[in-house]
Write a structure and sequence with these properties.
nucleotide-binding, Rossmann fold, single chain, 5 strands, Shikimate/glucono_kinase, Gluconokinase, gluconate utilization, binds adenosine-5'-triphosphate, alpha/beta, 159 residues, two-stranded parallel ribbon, binds D-gluconic acid, three-stranded parallel β-sheet, EC 2.7.1.12
Length: 159
């Protein structure tokens, strides 16, 4: 799971990571009910209730493993739901400042997410705890370096 706030590079890194690992890639935004996308597009942050069916669908989709998914997974409770689908889920948190995230989201054309929502993403972001399986990586590094760092920290028995 490639996680983090809007604009951190989840889709960019997720695709590159999947290619390097020879695994399929899935975009969690594709699991949002249309109402969630409409809400975000209108500048309103999602609530826990909005995210519940979305997280349940993603959790179900990772049951068999063998896939790279980009999913914001901002709160630990959300990651708990995802781990409920697959306890071996490994999280790569792309870490960056609110300023850089805002600049990236503002500079991106054709995406539903307005940059005004970036602050709300940081407001609820809970970084990985020491007991959570995953790694935080500087999201401003070149993509291939992020991918290499993520792979170097993945448990090898999972391939
Ligand atoms: N490592 C990087 N260095 C420089 N720019 C990057 C990097 N990763 C992503 N970007 C750029 O930042 C912008 C946001 O990236 P991307 O769409 O992958 O983020 P995201 O986390 O998937 O966003 P969202 O969740 O809002 O869809 C894009 O313009 C992308 O090209
Ligand atoms: O939990 C959330 O609020 C959402 O998943 C957002 O993070 C966006 O869908 C994504 O980042 C696209 O910009």
């Amino acid at each position: 799971m490639v996680m983090g706030v809007a604009g951190c590079g989840k889709s960019t890194v997720g695709r590159a990571l999947a290619e390097r690992l020879g695994l399929p890639y899935a975009e969690a935004d594709a699991f949002h009910p249309p109402a969630n996308v409409t809400k975000m597009h209108g500048g309103v942050p999602l609530t826990d209730a909005d995210r519940a069916p979305w997280l349940a669908a993603i959790a179900d989709s990772i049951k068999d493993g063998g896939v790279v998914v980009s999913c914001s997974a901002l709160k630990r409770a959300y990651r708990d739901v995802l781990r409920g689908g697959n306890p071996e889920a490994f999280f790569v948190h792309l870490v960056l400042t609110p300023e850089t995230a805002t600049a990236r989201v503002s500079g991106r054309a054709g995406h539903f997410m307005p940059s005004t929502l970036v602050a709300s993403q940081f407001a609820i972001l809970e970084p990985l705890g020491p007991d959570e399986d995953g790694v935080g990586v500087d999201a401003t590094l070149p993509v291939d370096e992020i991918v290499a760092k993520a792979i170097s920290r993945m448990p090898t028995h999972r391939g």
